[in-house]
Amino acid sequence: MNKWFCMLMCVVMLLACMQEDGSQGSKKINENKQIASLKTYKVTAYPYMPFVIRDGKGEVGGFEIEILQAIAKNQNIRFEFVPMLTNWEMLFKSIENQQNDLLSAAMYPNPERAARFEISEPYMDTRFMLLAGKGVMVNGLADLRGKRLAVFVNSMAEREILSLPYAKEISLVPIKSVYEGVKAVLAGEADVVYGDGVVLKYYANQFQAQGVRLSVDAHAEKHQFVFLISKGNRELLATVNAGLAAIQADGTLDRIKHKWLEK
């Protein structure tokens, strides 16, 4: 009697497990169908720590990527992150010709970009800062006289430096990324790197042991971070702006900032 009862219970448990597995499988299929049914927009990005980071498996993450994921969740849409490009003009062209819909690359707004793209509402303020090597005393732009300054070629930061009345007294070290400038400072190939404060704060924390020093000019102008969207795509622009407003209001944006920028 006990033997048959045990066998019966085993069969019942097996059937229950099979039913649960089937339910889980059906649930997963339904979830995939729901995701596939969402309106999808293509996002291209430029690898730029801590805004956009690509790991060894090719997966994309970072500060701006998490902001976009939060917007997508809030607005019930889907962002497809396409393979990243490392050429700036190719990035811009892919948005202009509507091959992709949105660019994530720690962008600042300016009149030239406004003529070429839709520009989202800003999600955070920033300003340019100076990261000096060990033993280099720099507290502002005026202290750059006689210094070797690493600055991103053809950037707003470079244009600002070139507009200074004493620009000829500064030896410019051209770089193609802020990280390249940080490496030049650490290697003694440049005295200072000038660029976005959020990015330089990130690297200042990473290389604190090497004695780097961060400073900001007293008259440094504020800039704002935005997303660039293909011209005429007013629907996506409105969706991104609505999502930004929502995640600012409910504290999600602050939590993402804390995770990536205030460690």
From TrEMBL:
Signal peptide annotation: 1-18
Record keyword Signal present: yes
Regions that span the bilayer: none
Keywords for this protein: Signal
Pfam family, one: SBP_bac_3
Record carries keyword Signal: yes
Highest taxon of the lineage: Bacteria
InterPro entries: Solute-binding_3/MltF_N
Every Solute-binding protein family 3/N-terminal domain range: 40-263
Listed name of the protein: Amino acid ABC transporter substrate-binding protein
